[in-house]
Design brief:
Helices cover about 30% and strands about 25% of the residues. It has about 350 residues and is α/β, with parallel strands linked by helices. The strands form three sheets. Strands 3, 5, 6, 9, 10, 17 and 18 form a seven-stranded mixed sheet that branches. A six-stranded parallel sheet has the order 13-12-11-14-15-16, with helices on both faces. A five-stranded mixed sheet has the order 2-1-4-8-7, with no helix packed on it.
Amino acid sequence: MVRAVVLSEQGKPLEVTDIVLPEPGPGRVKVRVVAAGVCHSDLSLSNGTLRQPVPAVLGHEGAGVVLSVGEGVTSLVPGDHVLLNWAPPCRECWYCEAGEPYLCERAADAAQIPHATLPDGTPLYPTLGAGAFAEETIVPERGAVKIPQDFPLDQAAVIGCAVLTGAGAVFNTADVQPGQTVVVVGIGGVGLSVLQAARIAGAERIIAVDTVESKAELALSLGATDFLVSDESTAKTVRSMTSGRGADVAFECAGHPAAIRTAWASSRRGGHLVIVGIGSAKSKVEFSALELYHFGRTITGCLYGSIDPDVDVPRLLDLVRSGQLDVSGLVTATTDLDGVEAAFTDMREGRGARTLVRLGA
């Protein structure tokens, strides 16, 4: 048995308890989790904003070491170091063959299949197919991306969601160009990754926007040229900072209607609004027919940074090794499995960026 953070029912407190993991079946691998980041999506899965079969093991942003592999697994062997990919592409469906593996129609399959049990035999589901808040987990072969043995696993864990999502939004979805102006609304782990990637891409002015002023120092240290505390005049202020036009590209990283409207209004006519944050299905954003026509802006949804793990993981690892991308800077707190609930509280109250759960060396 291994310890894990179990969600018995959405909206209820979490429980750290023992679970039973079988040996991996065909096409699956067992991973000893070394580190896992606490993502806002974990909170959304916990409180019911996102659907999830229960009881479930929370956590999806993780990295660790392969313990064993099931029949038919050819790309991994015990001892390999891996980061978890919570949306593994099948490489066979229409979207994968069309070059959009982040939209793979089978990417969510693993989340619907129990991977473990409670000691009494109750089936447990892995949230987002990963179940990373546990000492060990079982994932599909493509849900574990091999990385070099000398790359720090605590850094790899954060890359697995926050950095791939945020940097992917810049490099893939928006294709930010040198000299462009960028505004980023919502400065958590993903937003901070957007800031860094925009700097790497050569953006001239990078304006960070958040409701919490204490995030200013971190945002400015990781790529922002300016920081604004969000209020009713934010869009007007952004326009005044960008020759009266607004930003070329606006990234919304909070998943809230008000944040989406702020990002929209902060972008220029003909600009690009990228929706990175995950909102509730019940939350509505309104646009008039006239403004959609008049401003000529492009609105793009961004799922998992529009990534291809085979391309983007090696690219990001190289950026970290070269010192251009500071992954450690995203982590503002560390804890163990018992501290996940407190990390959720920090997230709700806007404190810090990423909390990292450390489970071993």
